[in-house]
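Dear colleagues,

As part of the handover before I leave the project, I'm documenting each prediction I ran so the next person doesn't have to rerun anything. This entry is a single chain, and its sequence is reproduced below.
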Amino acid sequence: MRESAEPWPDAAAVPLTALAFDELVSRALEDAQPCDSIGILMVSIDHFDVVTARQDPSFVQELLSIVSRRIADALRVGDRMTLHDDGFFILWAAGSGAPEKSDVTVRITEQFNEPVLMPAGQLPITVSVGMSVVVGSQCAETTSRMLRRQARSAVLGAQRNGRAQLAVFDRAIQRQAIESYETECLMLTALQDRRLGVQYQPIVNLHSGQTIGVEAAAHWNDDVLGSLSPATFIPIAEAGLMGEVERLVFRQAVAQVSAWNREGQPAPITSVNLSNRQLLDPGLIPRIESLLAENNLDPRQFCFEISESVLMSDVAASMTILGLMKDLGLLLAIDDFGTGYSSLSYLRRLPVDMLKIDQSFVQSIYNRDDRVIIKAIIDLAHTLGMTTVAEGVETRLQVEVLHALNCDMAQGPYLHATAPADQIDFDQINFDQINFEAPSLSENPDFASASARSTCRSVRL
């Protein structure tokens, strides 16, 4: 079954050409009365490059056609739309006041509560909305191009906050766009000058306290901006520099594992992250093979983490590439598990060794519903022969509860902060104050039953 992409039955709803749309907006601005508001919305498919990666032009065209129909179903009579570059722009009918946030969110984003039906199957997508509004006397000083540019800045700002988001253009978003551009320029210079480094965070076995692995992440200490965490600059790098950053991290991680081996230090399994662009890069497998061979390293010393949303964007391609990586002997993990759209039928077919529980669940572990979700993920992983890793552990209580729920491993600032390789203390993990026998919430039946069933599993790595 597929969703209709046949010709539009209502000619008034057909998307305009970009030129016709700009002319319509220009007339609306010229005719605006002092009390009128003119609104331009930009609707953008979240993670569009991920969704359409490795797809042919006919797939992309059909997807855009279906999305435009769904958006049109949310519009009022008189609202007109155009597809321009990678987003849909909408002229909100003049004279009716500025569009309300809640109205836009409900009318447009809810159109995508159900997956899109493509020839190859269901495709879950979401959209975010950016809005630019001009009022009264300001209309005479405004152009269609200005409104479109502002709406685009707004939607980019919205998507930095997640999926299905809404943002209205204002001076703060304008400043953010300028700052992001300036930061990207500084980052490019830092990459060229080799001033981007790598730091590591230990991954600890919750039953033995032993450090099983480390996660490698880019670290940037800039002369102008100071010390920046990945959470600050990675979203900016995703605009175009992500591939270079990830290649740098893997090269430095390989060099560090080689150094640990030479020093006689039992090298932990080292995890690195892969974005969609890297996963689908034809040069990925040869590059990994070459680096490991040059340094005489065992592939089993490395684990590649791929986010759930990246895997599910193209399951067939992901399974092929992951299969090739497993053939090399590499370990594989699904990162941020629980935040995407994984199908159990696909999950059991993926050649994955670990599920990493997203830190949003760990941070709300005090909530009974989220504890139930965490326990379900752990049980599912164990049933499929996978190991579980909890991310972002910040407190003793979180460690105790995760242990009671039979989670295998964890990482986070409570156990060990992210640090340069020479500052990692593999013997000093913060387990001193943890009471594994009687977690602070052990009176809760969930934990009592979980603790009774908990056994020291051998971690399959």
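Residues 91 and 110 are 19 Å apart (CA to CA). The longest strand covers residues 211-222.

All the best with the project,
I.
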